[in-house]
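REQUEST FORM: STRUCTURE PREDICTION
Request ID: SP-0412
Submitted by: Lab K.M.
Chain count: 1
Length (residues): 264
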Amino acid sequence: MAEAMPDKRQIADSFSRAAATYDQAAALQRAVGNNLLARLPRDVHPVDLVDLGCGTGYFSRALAARFDAPVTGLDLAEGMLRHARQASPPGGHWIAADAEALPLRDGSQDLIFSSLALQWCPDLSLALSEALRVLRPGGCLAFNTLLDGSLHELRTAWRAVDDFVHVNRFMTADELQGILAAAGFADWRWEVEEHCLHYPRLGELTHELKALGAHNINPGRPGGLTGRARLRQLTEAYEQFRTQQGLPASWQVAQILMVKPDTV
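STATUS: Completed
RESULT:
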């Protein structure tokens, strides 16, 4: 049976609250998004393009500079859009939008770029169907997403404390591959990157996740605050992973390029 997914309103609210702190905590997000940018084909010269799940607009601005073209930033979190508008040059388009119901015309876009956003979609297949709909023939969808195994150290440490859901769930590589194969694109390719960040103390990791808006928002999470005794248990359990570099936090990231058929 499929696991329950977080509510979209909770996702939007969580990221809206994190808008002011996101950029200071987004080292992984920068690296992963820049790797996606570097994977864009050299022969892609979009005129109409969107940054789907644009957040604070960092990659919207990078795309605009790379292609010398206006970029429409779409995000579910209105707080992120406000921040993006304030941080970007005048004239940008910032639209509150759901990736599973894009407010865009059929066949209107040359490129959809989306970095670390689509893992929050309850139905990735629907989001890909929407991307296919709004792309022009031959248009490109470039996105990345988190996979199962991300933050496995934190998940394992919590299991020593209780049976609640404390770490966001992500699909497996096999599940993702099946969805990509069935999405209707003419050509697609993907590869998985492994990233590992290190922290001197567990509190720095959990603070960073909160600053990003990516703390636990899954059904089955515990209510209320975590008491000192349980935090002490968690810290002791996480210490088993410590290396000379510090406490590791592992991430599994799928980088994906998909091309719409020239004729449909």
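NOTES: The radius of gyration is 19 Å.
Reviewed by: T.R.
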